[in-house]
Write a structure and sequence with these properties.
alpha/beta; 12 helices; 8-stranded parallel barrel; homohexamer; Pyrv/PenolPyrv_kinase-like_dom (chains A, B, C, D, E, F); metal-binding (chains A, B, C, D, E, F); lyase (chains A, B, C, D, E, F); TIM Barrel; Aldolase/citrate lyase family protein (chains A, B, C, D, E, F)
Chain lengths: 252, 252, 252, 252, 252, 252
């Protein structure tokens, strides 16, 4: 499978990413037909586990979106399992040090670049002719989350780790870490300055910067600012907002 | 449990009803917090079966919405099972004759009004003090769908069947039956005339009329016209519309 | 697999039957180790469907209890499916006429005795050497429920239908049908008289009579009265009673 | 979605059909990549229900096989549900009379040809541009099973029912009905004569004839004889045969 | 949601806690109506994983019991996930050192007290008005298990870790660690002396002490001794005991 | 339960092991009847998680195969959970050092040999009379995988760790680690030399050597070479090969 996110980034484009918290293949397959470039199964805060991730991937597969996962933690067992399941990108929370970034890359790459174990049980069938193992080290996106003061302190060292394709910013956790309220679509100057630094440092290294957003309007603004991977809420968040609005209008 | 839909109807109010096609309790529990009066698990066209209906009911229960089901067909086995699971209303597709309406009432009521078998395994625990069986015949809403020319031909006879609390109109099937395109939010004069007849005949008998809608604006208009039970699309339809819109805005 | 219930009945013994409402294989496998002769998955009022029945059967299988099912309704599709899944007995609710009893037997027997379709996907592996189809017509118990006034009116005609191995009495539904409260462990003289008639008529024909009970003490009394198949509540009922008692004792 | 089975039949070709008894999307997606033209979820004798059928369809969808279902029984609720789920063909067991064949066609076709209700929740997304409802009556294959003496007695009347695309023969049930052993890959002259009659009568009417087979060699012979739809065992049967053979060889 | 366990402890009362090993929402919802103050999903030794925990929580929610989890191990990924799912208490096995206790507190608290990541997908909806994140650090109970000799050696250091609300004793593991048989409801003087020390040291620090029990009578005795959190077996254990007893009585 | 693998090894025999990637109890129960000595649920590269492992064990249990698990990673939480679920053998990937081997043994043994926590919720019921905990340390097989250059470098130290019953070789990962293609059934002299060393060193210590194979013919050759535990592909691999072959033959 061509990694359409990687290709978009090569040509300088931003990608719009979906986010799945509902552990259901039917929901995922309908959501995957809405225009997203990639769709990420959120195994950290979403109501997802490994088998629901597989089910969501099965629902998504016919619809041409790049399958990604946010793993619950930087741990080799689960990183290996979601890659075998067919993830073409791994977003990993709370990567705060160079060592943690190196570990993540190790878990996600086959030797000699890493220590991933061979057995791409579903991933292998995305490709053609059994070529998966030859191209996976290049195709699979490794994306640590930068979302704490510690990560900012170690930013350059993290970004210099070979094998990192992008970073992803969680604005709520970043805020909490800095003593602010946990929320999305932030406007604080302090945060804006951090975003600018992240964009500058990633851009310098040919790494994409991603951001989780609460509204499509803010996401669009962030694309213009330079972010190359934007997500808007998640499946259930969009549904709840739409339902609340529908009820109000129907009641008049 | 007080049947808040029945109470609303008694006081002349219309209710806004949710509709679940996603077979998942988490999705259902989030959706149930959006302001609906009742939420219906759609076992006919939704991706739902009996156990997913139970799961959705479990997700909905803390949030104060009346649980209802659209059964896949007018069949005693499944009517009994969803009532035992806790449905306080049964919407039944394709009720076209007086005999079919009588059968539906029979399946949904305990003796002597019907032939429902005793065993309200989840329903019993909605109540308090083991009173469920004493009040169920009054509390459970029996709602045949009027959605074919045959049903219109037999309308008065259907409505005169004792034990019917409301009717529900499926505009797509009604259209198909009349040789029109299957769609919601219809404006054809021929259909409007049918709606007027339905409202008149139901109103005369103290029966509520319900309608499936594609947009909240149309639903609001239908409340003003006299419908007492309006649904807007379903969970997945609202999510898909919201997601398509978010992608477009984010891309700018 | 030897049908140990049939063997017990041949030697004049009563069997103690378990009843599963919890749709879970782990729960079923633990429950199956408690001393029951047979365990019945209740697909009518239990929270069970076809796949949960299969799962419960899988949990029960190592533990030597005869697997039975109460089907939700007298319908050929589901009778065939639970037999294929490995049920060695089918309890069918609301069999009120000779015609309904004949239909049930038809659904449960291979030609020439009935119209069951061949394909015992799990049932076949209970046996050895592919002999299942040759013995199934003899081994599988067909057990209509007698639980309405209509059934009592037609009792002899129902019992005379060839192929019926036992009847099963639902005291709650029987009570409802007679205008009494729905409850188990009844003591009304009117009901006792009915039980005596049922025992006499079944005994005369070499048919076993079964009864659903609320307490083991009452079940024991009914065995002494002549019932050959007694059930005590179900899995969840026993658990709830035990839990309520434990909480009270712990609080002192 | 183009109905590749229908196209093959138009050009006079036979199709090789897979058969799913394992209720799992992963198993289905791997099996769907083995070269079948169509894959049928067996809800009659397979360990399948409605939601496992949906899961199998999700697993199959990216791999270009036509999704079909064998329903458990000729019943409008389940026929409607599997079509909504995306089945492009319905194989229905035990169709023994013209009336049963007419009923099946009714359940499977939208008005005015039948009484199918509108709501193709997954099926709609196989197509493009919302055209599903306009083409479904032509695209969806209606395939009654001819597997009893009664069906043979009524053969011409059944085949003359408008809307039937093919018939499917269950050799085990056919054998049982004729007083023979239930088995596949039959060689009895009596059966061969029946097959010849079926091929002659279907061919005359432009209807395809299908057959369930136990070995690929026999299936190939049947294609040569004129059958246009051949199935070989099912997923689990092929696996079990392969596993038994592997164990033997490994042991030496 | 008010933390009724915390409130009970403040007023000096003991709480009676349920324990779920059966991975099923229906079983959980029935069990939750038996009078427990809190119900703990046992993800260590119970047949539970993350999604079954969510399902159990959904079943429990309407019935007013405090939801807690025993995690399988002291690991940040799973601690975060169960808190997001709505756990208001985390019981963690095998906390043997001060460092392990500190780690547990870190995983369970938002900054600045810990490193928990923001995203309370279900937990957020227990509260009202989006206040969850502001009160979670106070509301969520952190409960390390003291069940080895090493833990006893480090007891004071563990108890001095800020943020610990209670300890929980596993008598079987404690026994194994001390070279004794693994069992509940212990009476060995050596164990009693340990319990007295635990009660003294926790009481001194305003920390509650909890204990797993085999019978309600022993649990009651332990409440009198000073334990503030007592559990009696688990769901399946109570069911099995009740079923074995019922079979015996029914057989006479 | 007698550990038939251990007994076979004691008498010098090799065992043939099955391998489950399909997360389904029905598939597992059919596969378990094919002649395997043991069947391993592959939680590393198979589409399996904890609850699907439990389901597969339930399907396997009546059929006399020793239940084993390949865990996803060397982590105490999951090792404990699969043993409680009833695994009588744990195959652990990527054990590269003596310390890792020691940790694995610790996780798998009760005190004083290790730190496994007591609570064999399903495992306990395999035995009789509550003897499980007394024999588990002897019965449960601990099997580290040797599949990297690092592991070969540390081979003697790993093998000398007390409590290791066997090793298991993953030829694909071993190849990757040595800079070769990932594949099974290897013939490279370099690999053969490694196999000879492994057989010599394990044999010397009374430890069995196991190997994953792609064909039964190669597996048989490896038994002759001295391997005592051979696996052939997995459930889905055998099915896919058989299905591809069947399609080809049917097409002619």
């Amino acid at each position: 499978m061509a990694n359409k996110v990687k290709e978009a980034w090569k040509s300088g484009k931003a990608v719009v990413n979906g986010w799945l918290a509902i552990p259901n293949a039917f929901s995922a397959e309908m959501y995957a037909q809405c225009g997203w470039d990639s769709v990420t199964v959120d195994m950290q805060h979403g109501v997802q586990d490994y088998l629901s991730c597989v089910a969501c991937f099965q629902g998504m597969q016919p619809h041409g979106v790049l399958p990604m996962v946010r793993v619950p933690w930087n741990e080799p067992g689960i990183v290996g399992k979601v890659l075998d399941a067919g993830a073409y990108g791994v977003i990993c929370p709370m990567v705060n040090t160079e060592a943690e970034a190196r570990a993540l890359v190790q878990y996600a790459k086959y030797p000699p670049k890493g220590t991933r174990s061979n057995g791409p049980i579903r991933a292998g069938s995305y490709g053609s002719g059994g070529t998966y193992q030859k191209t996976a080290n290049d195709d699979v996106l490794v994306i640590p989350m930068i979302e704490t003061q510690t990560a900012l302190d170690n930013l350059e060292a993290i970004l210099d780790v070979e094998g990192i394709d992008a970073i992803y910013v969680g604005p709520s956790d970043l805020g909490l870490s800095l003593g602010m309220e946990p929320k999305l679509d932030r406007e604080e100057p302090e945060i804006m300055k951090i975003y600018e630094r992240l964009l500058k440092e990633t851009d310098k290294r040919g790494i994409a910067a991603g951001l989780h957003n609460g509204t499509p309007e803010y996401a669009n603004k962030m694309i213009k600012m330079g972010f190359k991977l934007v997500t808007i809420l998640n499946d259930v968040g969009l549904m709840v907002n739409a339902a609340k609005s529908a009820v109000k209008i129907a009641r008049g």
